[in-house]
Fold each of these.
Amino acid sequence: MRAVVIHAPRDLRVEEMACGDPGPGEVRVRLGVGGICGSDLHYYQHGGFGAIRLREPMVLGHEVAGTVAAVGAGVAGVAPGDRVTVNPGVPCGDCVYCREGLRNQCLDMRFYGSAMRFPHVQGAFREEMVIAAEQAFAVGDAVTLEEAACAEPLSVCLHAVTRAGSLVGKRVLVSGCGPIGCLMVMAARFAGAQEIVACDVIPAPLALATRIGADAGVNVAEGAGLAGERRDKGRFDVTFECSGNPRALAEAVEVTRPRGTVVLVGLGGDVPLPMNAVVAKELHLHGTFRFDTEFARAAGLIARRRIDVRPVVTATLPLDRARDAFDLAADRSRSMKVQIILGT
């Protein structure tokens, strides 16, 4: 069984790896497709992000879908042959936050392809893997595995919507139109936003954002950008900041109306916060981290194409071209969501 393993920055290898049989309550999945996430790119380009660094070789990947190959004793929810998307997060179920229902804040979370703990949690870019049965969510036969593998990033966006509160009839800004930003446009539209404006500094992702649901796209690197949206103390009810850029955060505070909501979706370094404006405008400032029950909802919405994620997937490359796939994913002018074919 082959897997995509990162050893050091730019040292990406396809290696042979063993895969065992499922035990009680477990499922072996023959993986078909895996999507490259921003965190995967950070490991590939820099060997980590922030204080998190690679300390041993690690299989990358956590956005995957495939077909159930075998089930262990006691498994009733899925059967061999079922096509599934895989929830990459495994909370402990016993810490104070799990008991409070905040499982995305688990104190002992195991999340695929993460170097946050040591030994690292190995990822899912491999041809087969054994998972807990509750991690497998059936998607049926009406959608492709490429679509099903988008359940994880869509879950992130659905959770961000829950942090924002009702979007029905609201005027919404999505700042940063990478894969998460574009899926955020879709999630906001599904949640009832009346008008959605997307902004970025690159034309290609802006064009896609307007094609999939944004009413307008603004290139903030050209012309006046969002200057007109600062009138009357800001004109957006809700802003989803998906870039993690310090200037974008400052802009989000400027263009969000008094008592509006800014949801910080994108990860970045420590940045200055315009506290005077946040206080004076009585803004609601929310972080949003991963997801929990939203994964099941994302799988269902994709399976029924209530949210059609197909436009976001712009390239799918074979496993033996994993390095090319990562290089392409890093080029925002040529790609959106790049996926790797892990098997059939």
Note: The mean pLDDT is 96.
Amino acid sequence: MRSPDIAATPARTARETTWHPRSLVASLPPDDREALLLLGTPRRFERGAVLMRLGEAGHDAHLILDGCVKVLGGSADGHTTLLAVRMAGDIVGELSVLDGRPRSATVEAAAPTRVRTIGGGTLRAFLRDRPGVGTAVQHSVNAKLREAIGHRTDSSGAPVMLRLVRVLDRLGRYCGRRTEEGLSISVPLSQADLSALVGATEQSVRRALGVLRSSGVLLTRYRSLVITDTDRLAALAEETAPESARRRP
């Protein structure tokens, strides 16, 4: 029986949704995009609902139509860590469908989120019939792997400020929306979520956010961030930490 916080909803067409330019759906030509959006069953997940759990068998994938989800992993000390966020146009759960192995992460709705839930057999057959989409999915998997490697490298000893600006730079490029104030990060992340992405304590991240605010790079509000100087943030993200700082815990 379905969880009470999940309900079927009508699907939108590609013409009714603005896909993020870095998403899987945005990378597809119109005919492949429309065909993919017809697969599976429409479902809605309320904020906090779990789409899939780490370690369980992966029988289907979820194509995100709108909203956003958090990708969560387990750390060696038993805590949950925030690994990534995924937006409209992204697909989650595809790796288990393709390789037959258990889920590598838990995925939780960060906001009310609509998806198309696509059975594994259906998705695999579709990718065989449309090799261009199969290539796009493989590119998406590769990009996620590179993101995970970059995240692990950034979290392995770089100063908190450097880690924070790199996370903010990635979030801005991936899920930022232009507003009059600047580049608004359209993901409802709490300070705890942001600290988990950075791999630092909330206190350390709070101090670093204060520095960015005072320097005119960032505006912070409740579950909202606006990058007011994207060029300066990108320059800070490109800086290399000194060797002594890299050895600092």
Note: The longest helix spans residues 131-154.
Amino acid sequence: MNRISNIVMTMIAATAIGAAGSLRAAERGVEIEHLGVNNTLVRVTADGKYLILPVQESNDEATVNVLVDGKTDKTLSVRLAKSKVDYTVPLKIEDYKGKKVLLNVVTSQSRSSVREAKEDACWQNISVSDTFDTSNREKFRPAYHHTPLYGWMNDPNGMFYKDGEWHLCYQWNPYGSKWQNLSWGHSVSRDLIHWEHRPDAVIEPDGLGMIFSGSSAVDRSGSAGFGKDAVVAMYTSAAASQIQSLAWSDDNGETFTKYDGNPVLTLDSEARDPNMFWDAERNVWILVLAHALDHEMLIFSSPDMKDWTLESSFGRGLGAQDGVWECPDLFELPVNGESGKKWVLLCNLNPGGPFGGSATQYFIGDFDGKTFTSDTDDSGKVPTKWLDYGKDHYATVSFSDAPDGRRTVIGWMSNWQYAPEVPTMQFRSANTLPREMGLFRARWVSSVRPMVSSTCRPHPRLRSTLSEARS
């Protein structure tokens, strides 16, 4: 029965693609001009919300330059379909209404002639549309874990809580289900279980590069100059080099405006994934930045998120030293049953996890506003601690400004060993369930040391649903 269903589904898909291909280009709202075996122009001749781009995952990436009234608006990398269409992705064009829109497409795929190039499936199926179907077509999409509606997703980014809503941003490729075109996607939840997907990337690539990982914080005093209670995001702009940039939002993260003075922090070596927070005790912003290839975290301070002073570094020779160090997070937690608090530094690395590939390690210690000092074991060494021993818990970071002193973390539920090869196409990757972090004092033999505990605390509606499922 399953086999018959699969055959029927394949026939339906093939029929749909064939129907699209049978329409002339003009009827699909485009004009196509082939300039050679590797260069094609696509003129958009009809108004609509989206230009639907056909994708074939096995293909090499084509460079798509989007020109609006003769000026380059954006450049994409898309695996445009050659012999078949695996799925389609939308290029939003509704903002270009009334303007001349031209795609200059350059592909590295080898063809013997222009005649052969004209036969590519993408040219037969590219079209203008007012809709894009995001209904689930995947058998293996998780029911409770957050996933993107479509496209590739990896690290969670810029997570914050404001006005009753949890905002989850994430590394996102809207133009395919493999790593590329990195932007920040955006989803919102009131209970950390039911997520509402925002349709557009909130921060897109620009002349400084793709948008890599980073963090967001609510600027309660307006110290950055973007307004009181503005949401400020700091992220890595990644092209030939990795530099740190700012964007800000005055509508609770629905849209972001890039700071016109970017970048705000540059180094002469590879550094990424800025994680910042307000140090209320010292009235200063603290930034932890991954010095990726040097296996250390750099700690900076700033009064305004723009002018940063390097205070110290942590990590060389400590903990797991394999691969690269990425995605830091530094926060303070109370120790269960005690009056004191300790600081926790999350440090994600790839590869080098306890069971291979990527993973999250952590250090417990003290922070004086400038320097993080890790606790040691009975032998005087800094122990290696893992937040999760599974292979699918990476790039773990926490929500800023969470209520009731909560420290809630989410990770990327995948592993770089196999992330691009999982059996889905409409989307790739999921997030872990949210975990509440806490510290307890572990006791064994004669030793007493703080340890991190992480607990999944489902919303009451989820607990009820799970109970019904078990019965």
Note: Confidence is low (pLDDT under 50) at residues 1-21, 458-471.
Amino acid sequence: MTQAYVYDAVRTPFGRFGGALAGTRPDDLAALVLGEQVRRAPELDPATIDEVVLGNANGAGEENRNVARMATLLAGLPVGIPGTTVNRLCGSSLDAAIIASRQIDAGEADVVLVGGVESMSRAPWVLPKTEKPYPAGDLALASTTLGWRLVNPRMQPEWTVSLGEATELLAEKHGITRERMDEFASTSHQRTQRAWDEGFYDDLTVRVPGTDLTRDESVRASSTVAKLGGLKTVFRKENGTVTAGNASPLNDGASAALLGSERAAELTGLVPIARIAGRGAAANEPQYFGFAPVEAANLALRRAGITWDDVAAVELNEAFAAQSLACIDAWGIDPGIVNRHGGAIAIGHPLGASGTRVLGTLAKSLQSSGARWGVAAICIGVGQGLAVVLENQNV
């Protein structure tokens, strides 16, 4: 078997819900990062790209069901490049990278563009079809922005609670306090702001034409534990802990990465940054979705042949502060190695784009620090988690 490597990664700045990117279609966002990824590979003949694999959690609107194919065409890439869209909700683009890495490992591909996109601002409302024509009663539109919709009545009620209520349950189960959540959230904003100020994200991002957005729009450098502590809880009025401040916001954005075999170095003119050394997927009870990355990462580490003692950097998608803290506690790792350059509470969480965002950030973090091993992990609604282990190729 060959080995799969991360050669490069790029994303848009993430816009807030209804913000700077709300006027841009998701297929255009995806086309932008695909085109930019090709442009950044100086010797790449686009005709040699074996496949495009993109993640997307919606698919009901302007994504037009198979946004990978649509974005490939919109980017002006050769029509002979096949494209497939993956939906594993929040983990969709990390799953896209996992799928592509397996293709490369199996010798079926040398160059694969992966990534993901989500416009939560432009997610449509949907109207279910009626079982018979001309119903007499009213019908309600369902938002496809986030969470459960058109729920099957046979689903167990405890599984279909909101993501926020599920996080409250997880916080109770693992003893995560409101104070710890707010401190974690404040740190996310401070680290993200510092990373932007230091230029860490400059070559990881590309501006969206027609917008003035040059940084992630949800970052609030003025966030403090005291300010966050004054926010009202959202999902429980009494004894609640989850607020808009210690949860990731709704966002728009796209991300991409170029994965390839050893031969891809010749085809692209790029030097591999990191080897994909281990992959893991796990599942648990839907209402405890935030804890699923624990076993996913442990499995990926075992497959990579290393332990947590070897890991120097972790990129964990911050869906909620409580679930992030629960995972960090379960792994027994130093919180200081987690999301050194900020996380989704500040950066944002456009569902389909977040997986490649954490993967690309991890690859760059290892490259800049000189550390050897890192883990990218993400929790997924309805009780799943994904993780990838990267090995720095420049140690």
Note: The CA atoms of residues 200 and 341 lie 8 Å apart.
